[in-house]
């Protein structure tokens, strides 16, 4: 079953980097009582993710916040160290929170996983974006072509906040 607008995000434990190292963060901590713009990528450091998807959210961070977003979250089925390094390289601090779903727990629970084993990547996330208000999905944009970041891009998500 794939999550859809109106559904509450399931409970899951994710990871993010802190000054003290990797730390768990629950979906309730991440989404409870907030408006969150979340986007998922198949893999950190991959071409479309690094050249199109993440940069769009970094460039539009101020506009998203002005439109009522409290937090911008990038999630990927990678580990917290990889997500932390990718965030550092792209200077996401204060703009985009880099979150690891290393075991694909949330990704599988919401039905947005894909099999990347043909490319040596194992279980990964589909490319998508969503607006989440207090843990409930308001908008969901799943990219039909994982090599593109248009439907799930920051500009489209921003237009849905208006």
Automatic annotation (TrEMBL):
Pfam families: Redoxin. Residues 3-162 form the Thioredoxin domain. InterPro entries: PRX5-like, Redoxin, Thioredoxin-like_sf, Thioredoxin_domain. GO terms for molecular function: thioredoxin peroxidase activity. The active site is at residue 49. Its EC number is 1.11.1.27. One of its GO terms (biological process) is cellular response to oxidative stress. Keywords: Antioxidant, Oxidoreductase, Peroxidase, Redox-active center. It comes from the Bacteria. It catalyses: a hydroperoxide + 2 glutathione = an alcohol + glutathione disulfide + H2O. One of its GO terms (cellular component) is cytoplasm. Thiol-specific peroxidase that catalyzes the reduction of hydrogen peroxide and organic hydroperoxides to water and alcohols, respectively. Plays a role in cell protection against oxidative stress by detoxifying peroxides. Belongs to the peroxiredoxin family. Prx5 subfamily. This is Glutathione-dependent peroxiredoxin. The lineage of its organism: Bacteria, Pseudomonadati, Pseudomonadota, Alphaproteobacteria, PS1 clade.
